[in-house]
């Protein structure tokens, strides 16, 4: 893709370098414009985790999950995934390290991490870039599909490897 | 909703920190979070600058228009209120293809560019249009063919079958994406039904028309 696009453009008599620089200029401003949105969101997530609120939340759901045959260790990953990409990747890596990549937990963690995206981050970046304040139902749809993806990942792994 | 979640996380975090005697951690977390936000944004600069440059080359070469024409029907189904031939469609398609190939780095700038193009069609610059919501739904669910990062991590920890999760990941991502498209459609319909009356000026320029769901062909007159 990186080689094909400029070559194709060159063949079509586009001044490729000028074109590139022209488009690249926009990148800087866009990245800078995202900073306030990202800082706001990252602070909230970080505070929520550090205060122990996340651990408390875990306490409620653990017995239920055990009853369903779902390893409760993967739950924080499901909660983190929509909030922070790097945070959930770190958590998934930790689960893989602790339980082994080929354990059920390791496989579920890999599948969850690979199959959904960081909804809040995507929302923040995309809406932030154009100055949208009212996202309407986008967050609900994103979180709903995260939930479906999370449940599907566990169910499919239990079926395939359980 | 994002206001509520944001405030909720901070207030709940504060209360828990106070009760657990973790005020030090709380303060630390505030600055850690802020630092991460800036670090991530700066990390995006190089990627955004490069890919927006490449995409501009592709645009000037007429590539985006070519792809948009080929995949038009899929996008027209998903984004009924974006006028035919609008530049947003090209960016939406590039964004979708990059996501599919697991080029997360390439997908973000194209998604942002698509957003900016959709914004030109938006009568109310602070409120998302249904098309913007659909674009986000597709991106948050993100169909992935090859989860490269995870395969690398599994390899790193000595997995006997590092790529063994490709099938389960694909299955889960397809389910999540279908759920996203379905939910997006459902909310879009609900939203159209109970949209509050708007001032006449806003209604004239609005893409989708009045309160009732217009026939699919009725969108061509809408231009931002």
Automatic annotation (TrEMBL), chain B:
<feature type="transmembrane region" description="Helical">
    <location>
        <begin position="37"/>
        <end position="55"/>
    </location>
</feature>
<feature type="region of interest" description="Disordered">
    <location>
        <begin position="198"/>
        <end position="224"/>
    </location>
</feature>
<keyword id="KW-0472">Membrane</keyword>
<feature type="transmembrane region" description="Helical">
    <location>
        <begin position="163"/>
        <end position="187"/>
    </location>
</feature>
<keyword id="KW-0812">Transmembrane</keyword>
<keyword id="KW-1133">Transmembrane helix</keyword>
<protein>
    <submittedName>
        <fullName>Nucleoside recognition domain-containing protein</fullName>
    </submittedName>
</protein>
<feature type="transmembrane region" description="Helical">
    <location>
        <begin position="135"/>
        <end position="157"/>
    </location>
</feature>
<dbReference type="Pfam" id="PF07670">
    <property type="entry name" value="Gate"/>
</dbReference>
<dbReference type="InterPro" id="IPR011642">
    <property type="entry name" value="Gate_dom"/>
</dbReference>
<feature type="domain" description="Nucleoside transporter/FeoB GTPase Gate">
    <location>
        <begin position="43"/>
        <end position="150"/>
    </location>
</feature>
């Amino acid at each position: 893709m990186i080689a094909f696009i400029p070559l194709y453009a060159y063949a079509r008599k586009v001044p490729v370098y000028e074109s590139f620089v022209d488009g690249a200029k926009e990148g800087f401003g866009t990245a800078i414009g995202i900073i306030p949105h990202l800082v706001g969101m990252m602070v909230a997530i970080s505070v929520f985790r550090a205060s122990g609120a996340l651990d408390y939340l875990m306490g409620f759901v653990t017995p239920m999950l055990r009853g369903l045959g779902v390893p409760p260790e993967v739950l924080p990953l499901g909660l983190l995934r929509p909030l922070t990409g790097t945070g959930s990747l770190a958590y998934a890596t930790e689960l893989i390290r602790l339980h082994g990549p080929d354990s059920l937990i390791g496989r579920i963690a890999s599948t969850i991490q690979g199959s959904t995206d960081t909804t809040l981050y995507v929302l923040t970046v995309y809406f932030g870039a154009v100055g949208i304040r009212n996202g309407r139902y986008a967050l609900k749809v994103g979180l709903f599909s995260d939930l479906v993806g999370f449940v599907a990942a566990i169910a499919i792994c239990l079926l395939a490897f359980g | 909703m994002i206001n509520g979640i944001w405030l909720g996380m901070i207030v709940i975090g504060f209360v828990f920190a106070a009760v657990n005697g973790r005020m030090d951690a709380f303060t630390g977390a505030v600055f850690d979070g802020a630092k991460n936000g800036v670090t991530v944004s700066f990390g995006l600069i190089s990627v955004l600058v490069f890919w927006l440059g490449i995409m501009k080359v592709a645009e000037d070469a007429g590539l985006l228009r070519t792809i948009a024409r080929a995949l038009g029907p899929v996008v027209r189904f998903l984004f009924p209120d974006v006028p035919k031939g609008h530049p947003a469609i090209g960016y939406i398609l590039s964004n979708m293809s990059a996501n599919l190939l697991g080029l997360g780095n390439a997908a973000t700038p194209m998604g942002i560019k698509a957003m900016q193009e959709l914004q030109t069609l938006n009568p109310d610059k602070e409120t998302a249009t249904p098309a913007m919501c659909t674009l986000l739904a597709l991106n948050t669910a993100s169909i992935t063919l090859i989860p490269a990062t995870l395969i690398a991590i599994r390899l790193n920890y000595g997995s006997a079958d590092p790529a063994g999760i490709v099938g389960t990941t694909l299955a889960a991502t397809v389910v999540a994406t279908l759920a996203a498209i379905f939910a997006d459609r459902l909310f879009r319909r609900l939203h159209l039904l109970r949209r509050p009356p708007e001032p006449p000026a806003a209604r004239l320029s609005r893409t989708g028309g009045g309160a009732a769901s217009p026939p699919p062909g009725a969108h061509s007159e809408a231009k931002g």
